[in-house]
Amino acid sequence: RIVYVNGDYVPEEEAKVSIFDRGFLMADAVYEVTSVLDGKLIDFAGHRARLGRSLTELQMDAPVTDDELLEIHRELVKRNGITDGLVYLQVTRGNPGDRDFAFPNPAVKPGLFLFTQSKPGLADAPAAKAGWKIISIPDERWGRRDIKTTQLLYPSLGKMMAKKAGVDDAWLVEDGFVTEGTSNNAYIVKGRRIITRALSHDILHGITRAAVLRMAKEAQLEVEERSFTIEEAKDADEAFVTSASAFVMPVVEIDGATLGSGKPGPIAARLREIYIEESRKVAV
Ligand code: PLP
C-alpha cells in the first residue's frame, strides 16, 4: 500500500512518524474517514468541512489547502487502485520534539497522515441484509464528542464488549438516553417518523446523518431530532445507524429484544438504497 505522510507518498513499510508527535503521545489529533465507491469519494465536501471545524475547535492549523486535500485523497485512491473502500485521514498537532502538556508555542507544523483501506463490495455488505444486533453500555467518553479526535479507547472497549456479548456494536447511554453508537449515529423509527438525537457537544455531527436526514425529508418521512431511551428503542418499529463506512445499517436486536420481525425494517432498507444511490451520483 502507498500511504501519505507529511508531504510524501511512500510504501507503508517506509512511513515514519516521530515518537514525540502529539498525536501519538496525547491523542492530540483529529481524523476523518471518507468512503470510496467506484473509485470516487462519497460526501467529501462534508468530511472536509467537518475536519475544518474540528481543527478550529482545537486551535490547530490546517496542514494543507482544501484543494490539496482532495488531490491527496484522489492520488491515494488512484495509486492503490481502490474501487470500493475507505480513505483514513489524520491531522496531529505535530512534533514539538519533546513531551509537554502545553501546546507548542509557537505552533509546529501539523502532522498529516492518510492511508486507504480496500473493501470490495462495500455498498452491498451482507451485514446490511441481516441487520446488526446491539447492546447498550454507559457512555464514558469525554464531553466534546462533536470534535472528531483520535481518543478512541472507550469506543474501542465498547466494540470489545459488543463482541464479547456476541453482537455487532454497542449504543452508548448517558443520563438514561442514547447518545450514539461506538462509531455511528443512532436512530429509531416509529411509523413514518425517524427519531435521532439532536446535535450538540454530546455526539459527533455525522456527515452521513446530515445527508440521510435530508434524503428522508425528501422521501416524505418525518424527522424528529430528540433523545430517546433504550426502552423506547426496544419498542420501536425499526432502528438503524449511519456512518461513512456502514452507510445506513439496520439494527434488528437491542439488548436481546428483537425489533419487529427481526429482519431489517423497510424504512432503514429504503434509506440505505437512497443514500447509496444518491451519493454515488454526486461522488467526486
Ligand atoms: N458517531 C461517532 C462516534 C463516530 O465515530 C462516527 C464515525 O466515525 C459517526 C458518529 C458517524 O459519522 P459519519 O457519518 O460522518 O461517518
UniProtKB/TrEMBL annotation:
GO terms for cellular component: cytosol. Pfam families: Aminotran_4. It comes from the Bacteria. The keyword Amino-acid biosynthesis applies. It catalyses: L-valine + 2-oxoglutarate = 3-methyl-2-oxobutanoate + L-glutamate; L-leucine + 2-oxoglutarate = 4-methyl-2-oxopentanoate + L-glutamate; L-isoleucine + 2-oxoglutarate = (S)-3-methyl-2-oxopentanoate + L-glutamate. Pathway: Amino-acid biosynthesis; L-valine biosynthesis; L-valine from pyruvate: step 4/4; Amino-acid biosynthesis; L-leucine biosynthesis; L-leucine from 3-methyl-2-oxobutanoate: step 4/4; Amino-acid biosynthesis; L-isoleucine biosynthesis; L-isoleucine from 2-oxobutanoate: step 4/4. GO terms for biological process: amino acid biosynthetic process; branched-chain amino acid biosynthetic process. Gene3D superfamilies: 3.30.470.10, D-amino Acid Aminotransferase, subunit A, domain 2 (3.20.10.10). Its EC number is 2.6.1.42. This is Probable branched-chain-amino-acid aminotransferase. Acts on leucine, isoleucine and valine. InterPro entries: Aminotrans_IV (IPR001544), Aminotrans_IV_CS (IPR018300), Aminotransferase-like (IPR036038), BCAT-like_C (IPR043132), BCAT-like_N (IPR043131), Class-IV_PLP-Dep_Aminotrnsfr (IPR050571). Belongs to the class-IV pyridoxal-phosphate-dependent aminotransferase family. The keyword Hydrolase does not apply. The lineage of its organism: Bacteria, Pseudomonadati, Pseudomonadota, Alphaproteobacteria, Rhodobacterales. Keywords: Amino-acid biosynthesis, Branched-chain amino acid biosynthesis, Pyridoxal phosphate. GO terms for molecular function: branched-chain-amino-acid transaminase activity. It is an enzyme of class 2 (transferase). Its cofactor is pyridoxal 5'-phosphate.
